[in-house]
Amino acid sequence: MEGQVEEKMCGKLRATCVQFNSKLRGVFTWDLLKTLVMGQVLSLLICGTAVSCEYLAIAGVHTPMMQSFLNYTLLLLVYTTILCTHKGDRNVFQVLKTKWWKYLLMGLADVEANYTVVMAYRYTTLTSIQLLNCFVVPVLMLMSWFLLKTRYKLLHFIAVTVCLLGVAAMVGADVLSGRDQGSTSDVVLGDSLVLISAVLYAASNICQEFTVKNLSRVEFLGMMGFFGTIISGIQLAALEISAVKEIKWNFHVAMLFVAYVLCMFALYSFMPVVVKRTSATAVNLSLLTAALFSLFCGIFLFHYTFSGLYIMAFIFIMVGFVTFNAMPTYAAQPEPDTVDPSDQEAQSASDRLLPANGDGVPRNGGLMVVAAL
Predict the structure, then answer these.
(1) What's the CA dihedral at 146, 152, 158, 162 to 10 degrees?
(2) 149: left (phi over 0), alpha (psi -120 to 50) or beta
(3) Cβ proximity of 260 and 53 under 8 Å
(4) 92: nearest Cα among 1, 194, 227
(5) pLDDT digit string, tens, across residues 227-257
(6) Which residue, among 310, 309, 299, 311, has the nearest Cα to 54 in the 3D structure?
(7) 2: buried, middle or exposed (CB in 10 Å: 19+, 13-18, 0-12)?
(8) pLDDT attached to residue 14
(9) How far apart are CA 131 and CA 146, in angstroms?
(10) Out of 18-27, 157-166, 221-230, which region has the weakest mean confidence (pLDDT)?
(11) Which of 199, 71, 224 is nearest to 139 (CA)?
């Protein structure tokens, strides 16, 4: 009898292990691994922009708007030119004729998001900026909920919390190592600028997600380059002419500008690919590691102090990112205005939530997100 009982227990244990392994294989797929790698490529590109900016600052160059202008100009030369070769409704002139004001708002949000966060460094500390920048994630989730009708499960909120705990560990390491850089001349103004930047980033990212999933990546980048060049060019002429004149040009400074612009161009070009594959929220969670990559580079290049909390922060962010992408989000099905009485009984509550092809966004509809913004 004892042998039979043990055999039954072993059989149940084996069945449980097989079931658990099957579930793990269903979660940790090659698709998830690709998403993870692509997200970290984006983080490394941001790290490249941060390192080049640090070297430019050491060289006495402080021209954030000029750097943005060069990036938007390169986007214009590449993607707007490609858009000019398209025919019919996808041609650049037809796009501008029908949607110019929507893309103008999207370009304005993107340019000003970059500018306001740079301005924040003049008034508040690095710690405040790192913490408040995380505000972009809940704002993205809120915008996705109302504008894209994306529905999240409890696991997604837990995953975001884990990622934010990783950011908290990173900020704690900065404070302990004495890397609380920045200014405290007007903390309230500086923190407000960071929050404004986070909202603008979220608006730009949510428009990007809708556009690349419903229209095209080339149209998004072409219009971003077109309007970004105009807006950043106007601000450059108004705010940074004197700073540009003071640049002491040499080969070293020129190569730093080239490195920055190429990293930004690659980031803008590749990010829509990852957003289309996942979502703007998932991409921003993966980008939380960018600051860590910059810190790791700073340890070797700028002699920053290493802390074990950085490793803990990286693990937390990675675990949160994997957890968030392990379960697909859902898109709420719009309520019909009129329902046939014969179909009412067949319609169940579960029919109101439909899988969104694994990316959490419905595939149809006009450019209502930008209009709503």
Answers:
(1) -60
(2) left
(3) yes
(4) 227
(5) 999 999 999 999 999 999 999 999 999 999 9
(6) 299
(7) exposed
(8) 66
(9) 25
(10) 18-27
(11) 199
Q: Which two tokens stand for residue 31?
A: 């698709």
At position 274, the amino acid (one-letter code) is V
pLDDT 10s digits, 137-186: 999 999 999 998 999 999 999 999 999 999 988 888 877 777 666 666 67
Exposed/middle/buried for 82, CB within 10 Å: 0-12, 13-18, 19+?
middle
The length of the chain is: 373
pTM (2 d.p.): 0.81
Question: Which residues touch 293 (CB under 8 Å, ≥6 apart)?
Answer: 43, 44, 46, 47
Q: Would you state the structure tokens that stand for residue 365, as one six-digit string?
A: 């509809």
- Give dist(CA 110, CA 285) in Å, integer: 18
Question: What letter represents residue 55's amino acid?
Answer: Y
Q: Quote the tokens at residue 290.
A: 């960018």
| Tokens matching residue 260 | 């920055």
> In this structure, what token pair is assigned to residue 52?
């080049």
Cα 252 from Cα 125, distance rounded (Å): 29
Q: What's the number of CA atoms in the CB half-sphere (13 Å) around residue 181?
A: 4
Residue 113 corresponds to which tokens in the numbers above?
Answer: 């998001």
Full 3-state SS string of the chain: CHHHHHHHHHHHHHHHHHHHHHHHHHHCCHHHHHHHHHHHHHHHHHHHHHHHHHHHHHCCCCCHHHHHHHHHHHHHHHHHHHHHHCCHHHCHHHHHHHHHHHHHHHHHHHHHHHHHHHHHCCCCEHHHHHHHHCCHHHHHHHHHHHHCCEECCHHHHHHHHHHHHHHHHHHHHHHHCCCCCECCCCHHHHHHHHHHHHHHHHHHHHHHHHHHHHCCHHHHHHHHHHHHHHHHHHHHHHHCHHHHHCCCCCHHHHHHHHHHHHHHHHHHHHHHHHHHHCCHHHHHHHHHHHHHHHHHHHHHHCCCCCCHHHHHHHHHHHHHHHHHHHCCCEEECCCCCCCCHHHHCCCCHHHHEEECCCCCCCCCCCCHHHHHC
CB 106 within 8 A of CB 230: no
